[in-house]
Design a protein that fits this description.
Number of helices: 5
Shape: elongated
Number of domains: 1
Helix content: 55-70%
Mean pLDDT: 76
Number of strands: 2
Distance between the termini: 25 Å
Order of helices and strands: HHEHHEH
Low-confidence stretches: none
Structural class: mainly alpha
Oligomer: single chain
Strand order of the largest sheet: 1-2
Strand content: under 5%
Length: 133
């Protein structure tokens, strides 16, 4: 395994990519909820990503499980793409103020993930250039 593999194709990199995709799916669900705030019988949509990530908690720091964790991340990504939005069983009607708060929270999360991805890219660039500017 080369240094490029460990940085560019790491579990951390895959998790950040998955989390970015989940944030996009969550934003779409929140936008649909806001667009249908006055639609009679509309049930709010959500994304199950938080539950999926909870399953991985603690595994990411154990480097011996990187291969199985990477497979699980790919499986989570496939699940997210096949059904990104589901009806949220905990909420029966759209509350506009809660949806706006959730969009703001999701935006902050997305910006943080972009910053993390930028740092990973910077590390990859440093490996490629051997630390030379």
């Amino acid at each position: 395994m080369s240094p490029l593999d460990s940085v560019g194709d790491s579990v951390t990199s895959k998790l950040v990519s998955l989390a970015l995709d989940a944030a996009v799916a969550r934003q779409a669900a929140l936008a649909a909820n806001i667009a249908n705030v006055d639609t009679e019988g509309f049930r709010p949509l959500g994304v199950r990503f938080d539950q999926l990530v909870e399953e991985l908690r603690g595994r990411v720091t154990d480097r011996s499980k990187d291969e199985s964790t990477a497979r699980q991340v790919q499986s989570m990504h496939d699940t997210l793409e096949s059904s990104p939005m589901i009806e949220d069983p905990t909420v029966s009607k759209v509350e506009l103020d809660m949806q706006m708060a959730a969009i703001t929270k999701n935006l902050v999360l997305y910006q943080s993930l972009l910053a993390a991805q930028g740092k990973l890219s910077s590390m990859l660039q440093m490996v490629i250039t051997e630390g030379k500017q």
